[in-house]
Amino acid sequence: MLRSCSRTVARVFGASVCLAGLCLVMVGCGESGAPGRAEAKGTVTIDGRPLEKGTVFLVNEKGLPAGVGNVVAGAFELSENASTRGVLPGSYGVKIESWKVEPGAVLENGSFSPGELAIPKKFTDAKTSGLKAEVKDGANEFTFALNSK
Q1: Taking the model in full, what pTM does it have?
Q2: Span 16-38, pLDDT tens digits
Q3: CA-based end-to-end distance of the chain
Q4: Where is the signal peptide (predicted)?
Q5: Which residue from 1, 87, 102, 140 could staple onto 67, CB 3.0 to 4.6 Å apart?
């Protein structure tokens, strides 16, 4: 009797775990056009050429990140987080990071690199970059043209 009761409890528990896992997968999947979020994508160039790689950050008025997107061959798409595509509409400062040598990379002599930027330092801070983004409901397309001088 105890064994059959234990098996029943184990089956019910196993089924519950599977159902809970399925619910998490269904809820956790990111989606385009998440409620209240607007599509925001665009291009980054440096001296007229697409920026090879980097990261674009939207920064709110408190200086906190509100969206981020990886730059690949000049193109990026912004997301609020890893599971939700798009960002909340609003006015944002923009900062961009792109590295020739990543900070903390191990150099040939065994020391750690402080990093070497691929773009001028002023673009790595939303306060000094001069870049702004006004995200509106719907689809948004931005072009950030950087100069190395």
Answers
A1: 0.75
A2: 433 344 333 333 444 445 789 99
A3: 82
A4: 1-20
A5: 87
